[in-house]
Amino acid sequence: MKQLLAICTLTMLAFTACDKEDTETAGTQLVASLEGAWKEVAIGYSIGGPMIHKPIPAEDAQMIGFSNGMFVSNDAMNEFNRYSSDSLTVTLRNSFTGKSFKYGYIIINDTLTLTPLTVMCVEGCYSKFARTEQGK
Fold first, then answer.
1. SS3 of 132, please?
2. Which domain of life is it from (predicted)?
3. Which secondary structure element, helix H or strand E, spans residue 5, and what is its range?
4. 13-17, 41-45, 69-73: which has the minimum mean pLDDT?
């Protein structure tokens, strides 16, 4: 099941990617650093029907940060304190308990989209974060 979710995520990313010429024309930055500070701006999920997209009010937004292998969060992901990543996935880890959680990610124009690569989002879900001024 994990492999199926990973394949679905990679397929989705492949269909949303564009070539270098399109990127330059549209002014879209597809390759960016994960490191920095990010503020949650939206979530998406499905409860069996079409995808539901919801903006997050500023006062309810969680903050996350990535720096030199360290991960910080002020909310739901605060049980993790380390991360590792490649060009498509980021794995959050708790260095004390060994617990980990893997996400697919993409960054476009300083917007980070995290998609869990687990069975918890069989019908799809994501969290979107905007890079903060402190994170640039």
1. coil
2. Bacteria
3. helix 2-16
4. 13-17
Q: What share of the chain is helix, strand, coil (3-state, %, to 5)?
A: 25, 40, 40
Closest by CA to 5, choosing from 87, 102, 100, is 102
Is the separation of the CB atoms in 114 and 103 below 8 Å? yes
Which backbone phi and psi does 92 adopt, to 5 degrees? -90, 140
Cα–Cα dist 84/121, whole Å: 22
| CATH number of domain containing 9 | 2.40.128
Region of 98 please: left (phi>0), alpha (psi -120 to 50) or beta: left
* Number of domains, the chain: 1
For residue 131, what are its two tokens? 């890079």
- Name the pLDDT band for 94 (thresholds 50, 70, 90): very high
What residues make up the domain containing 84? 2-135
45-70 confidence digits (pLDDT tens): 998 889 999 999 999 999 999 999 99
**How far is residue 78's CA from residue 71's CA, in Å, rounded to a whole number?**
9
For residue 20, give every residue at least 6 positions away whose Cβ sits within 8 Å of its Cβ, in sequence order, or none.
none
Structure tokens belonging to residue 130: 């905007």
